[in-house]
Design a protein that fits this description.
328 residues, alpha/beta, elongated
């Protein structure tokens, strides 16, 4: 009885494991059942160093597939062609994975897309020198298909020179265009430039500039010394502490509303003074006239003292008044 239960459990375990394995295979491979592959090939007449098997291929940055074969046209299509008539191209084949409907549409539209400028181009993947294949629309007239005389095994997609290759080619053409006379003239001009720079450097008052720089450094050092002395002065710390205390008191006065009450009191006093002056305007005018009279009298006394100081200060008593005598 125990052996039969053990066998039943073992059988259930095996069946469960097989079911899980089948489910995993279905989940992992179900996309491939609904997808198709579209293989195309392109040819290059320049070096494609950096492009390797497994290098990605993309259409305007969207992953499309990967490079599956890198061959030579001599071994693939020209084994019986004389050497002088061989193209010596590099054949690159790419397998693109896409839904079946999209792959079928690609097969139908590829000829029209090629006429519109669809081209394959190698691009640098970074500073490591690795390359990938970029599919994009370019100017069809500027990048015509390479000529060949065989029937491609897969759909043919024309290629275009890479940007890096074009830059190198232009640099090489520029260097090749420089003749010996141009190089000699360039060397003479550089030599003249070096001589002129040397003459200008010799004319510069290096000693005066050095003396001025040293004087400026001494002034900076003196200013730094003074700043150190000021910062080291204990009174500076006391002043800062006092300023902090005053600021704290002012802040407390502002928070308590004393400033507002003080300003309100000043406004009230001003209003009262304005009222008093308005009510006693005539008295104020009379006082002002009396003050002006007093000032005029003082001015007259001052003029008299200035004209005859002895008569004013040392003059005798006033003359006696003689009264009229009585009639007989």
């Amino acid at each position: 009885m125990n052996d039969s239960k053990r066998y039943v459990r073992l059988g259930l375990f095996v069946m469960t494991s097989v079911g899980v394995l089948v489910a995993a295979l279905f989940v992992l491979g179900w996309r491939s059942w609904f997808q198709s592959t579209f293989t195309f090939e392109t040819y290059f007449d320049k070096s494609i160093a950096g492009l390797a098997l497994g290098s990605p291929a993309s259409f305007r940055g969207v992953p499309l597939g990967q490079v599956t074969e890198i061959l030579t046209s001599v071994a693939t299509y020209e084994p019986d062609v004389p050497v002088e008539h061989r193209r010596d191209y590099i054949v690159v084949r790419v397998k693109a994975t896409m839904p079946a409907a999209e792959a079928e549409q690609m097969r139908r539209d590829i000829a029209v897309m090629i006429r519109q400028g669809l081209r394959a181009q190698t691009q640098l993947a970074g500073v490591t020198g690795q390359q990938y294949l970029e599919i994009d629309f370019l100017d069809a007239k500027s990048h015509p298909p390479l000529p060949f005389g065989w029937t491609p095994k897969y759909t043919y997609l024309p290629s275009a020179p890479s940007v890096a290759g074009e830059i190198i080619a232009k640099a090489q053409a520029f260097l090749a265009g420089l003749d010996e006379a141009d190089i000699k003239t360039l060397g003479q001009n550089l030599n003249t430039l070096v001589v002129d720079l040397d003459a200008k450097v010799r004319v510069l008052p290096v000693s005066d500039l050095a003396a001025a720089a040293q004087a400026a450094l001494r002034k900076v050092d003196a200013v730094a010394t003074r700043l150190d002395a000021v910062l080291a002065d204990p009174s500076l710390g006391t002043t800062l502490d006092n300023a902090a205390v005053i600021s704290a008191r002012l802040r407390r006065l502002a928070d308590d509303g004393d400033f507002d009450r003080m300003i309100q009191g000043v406004d009230e006093v001003a209003a009262r003074l304005s009222g008093v002056i308005g009510d006693n305007r005539s008295d104020v005018r009379e006082v002002v006239r009396e003050l002006r009279g007093t000032a005029n009298n003082l001015r007259a006394v001052s003029e008299a003292i200035r004209r005859d100081p002895s008569g004013v200060l040392l003059g005798g008593p006033p003359r006696k008044v003689q009264l009229p005598t009585s009639m007989p």
